[in-house]
Write a structure and sequence with these properties.
- By secondary structure, this protein is mainly α.
- The protein has one domain.
- Helices cover 65% and strands 0% of the residues.
- It is elongated, with a radius of gyration of 24 Å.
- The two termini are 28 Å apart.
- Its main location: membrane.
Length: 209
């Protein structure tokens, strides 16, 4: 069994990778714990997340070698070989993400893209027209609105949930999937740090090389 040595070269991440990584983390935490779903703050954090993800994807083409997509291509075959390597107690060095980590990165980016696209579509959906400003609705319309409000009130009292559109369902499903991927990602980082002896989290902090 190969044991990690103190002379192992440290992982190096450039400032743009660190900036985009922690900005994405902050945006996810903000919209999960601080902003109200559907609020303007929630939407603007989503736009910031979209811009940050776009920057990271661009950096994957023009950035330094270890940040480029070519340094960690998604490969299920290589990921399976990496699992066999772990089971055999072997360890090899990777200039960027290891094969399992690479699959996780692309999975998280893909789910983030779904969240961003569905969120933007929901935010830009036109509001239901309510007639001319200041004009009283026709009697039939007023009766219908009153009846709908009454039915909605009864539904809330009875514990019934509002029917959600397909965009909302896809958005919420993707968000829940993202949380699962994040937990798996954290578990993978902890496992790899213990297995390899590398200070993986410290290497991603600002000022670290």
């Amino acid at each position: 069994m190969t044991t990690p040595t103190a002379t192992a070269s440290p992982r190096r991440w450039d400032p743009v990778v660190k900036l985009t990584h922690w900005t994405i983390v902050a945006a996810i935490l903000a919209n999960a714990l601080i902003t109200e779903e559907g609020s303007s703050a929630h939407v603007w954090v989503g736009y910031a997340l979209a811009g940050t993800l776009a920057l990271r994807l661009i950096w994957g083409v023009i950035g330094p070698a270890e940040a480029r997509f070519s340094a960690f291509p998604p490969s299920p075959g290589r990921a399976l070989a990496h699992i066999r390597e772990i089971a055999a107690g072997k360890r090899s060095e990777h200039a960027s993400h290891n094969p399992l980590g690479a699959l996780m990165v692309y999975a998280i980016w893909s789910v983030l893209a779904v969240i961003i696209v569905t969120g933007v579509l929901m935010a830009s959906a036109p509001a239901e027209p309510r007639g001319e400003p200041g004009a009283a609705p026709p009697a039939a319309t007023a009766e219908r609105l009153e009846r709908e409000e009454h039915e909605e009130g009864e539904g809330r009292e009875g514990g019934e949930e509002h029917e959600e559109g397909p965009l909302t369902e896809v958005h919420e499903t993707a968000v829940n999937l993202l949380y699962v991927l994040i937990l798996l990602h954290i578990a993978g980082v902890v496992f790899e740090a213990r297995r390899s002896g590398r200070r993986i989290v410290l290497a991603m902090l600002p000022g670290r090389r």
